[in-house]
């Protein structure tokens, strides 16, 4: 379950992903499979080659891409999430969600 974002933020992420940009959306998240994770960052792009290359820079494997949606993305959790947000200079996500 996702929460802590606005509809406008979600729509902007969807638009950017659809346009082939690498787009980031961080939100609060509850999932019984990952009880230690309270947030997730979705890093997505409809340009799969671009997304795969981007992910490889951070050691992310192509098989980790969620394809069951029209918005292909990686789910970033925990230390990986924070490390990537820092490298992408998305400190606003880190501050907002107290990562």
Task: Indicate the topology.
Layout: E1 2-3, H1 7-18, E2 23-29, E3 39-44, H2 48-57, E4 73-76, H3 78-87, H4 91-96
Antiparallel strand pairs: 1-2, 2-3, 3-4
What would you say this structure looks like, in words?
With 99 residues, the protein is α+β, with helices and mostly antiparallel strands. The chain has four helices and four strands. The chain has a four-stranded antiparallel sheet with strand order 1-2-3-4. 23% of the residues are buried. The mean pLDDT is 94.
Core attributes:
single chain; 99 residues; alpha+beta; four-stranded antiparallel β-sheet; 38% helix; YneQ
What is the gist of this entry?
The chain has 99 residues and is α+β, with helices and mostly antiparallel strands. Helices cover 38% and strands 19% of the residues. It is built from four helices and four strands, in the order βαββαβαα.
Helix count, DSSP H or I runs of 4 or more residues: 4
Task: State the helicity in percent bands.
Answer: 25-40%
Order of helices and strands: EHEEHEHH
- Percent strand equals 15-25%
- What is the CA-atom radius of gyration, in angstroms? 13 Å
Physical arrangement of strands within the biggest beta sheet = 1-2-3-4
Tally the beta strands: 4
Q: In total, how many domains does the architecture comprise?
A: 1
Query: What distance lies between the first and last C-alpha atoms, to the nearest angstrom?
Result: 19 Å
Give the mean pLDDT.
Answer: 94
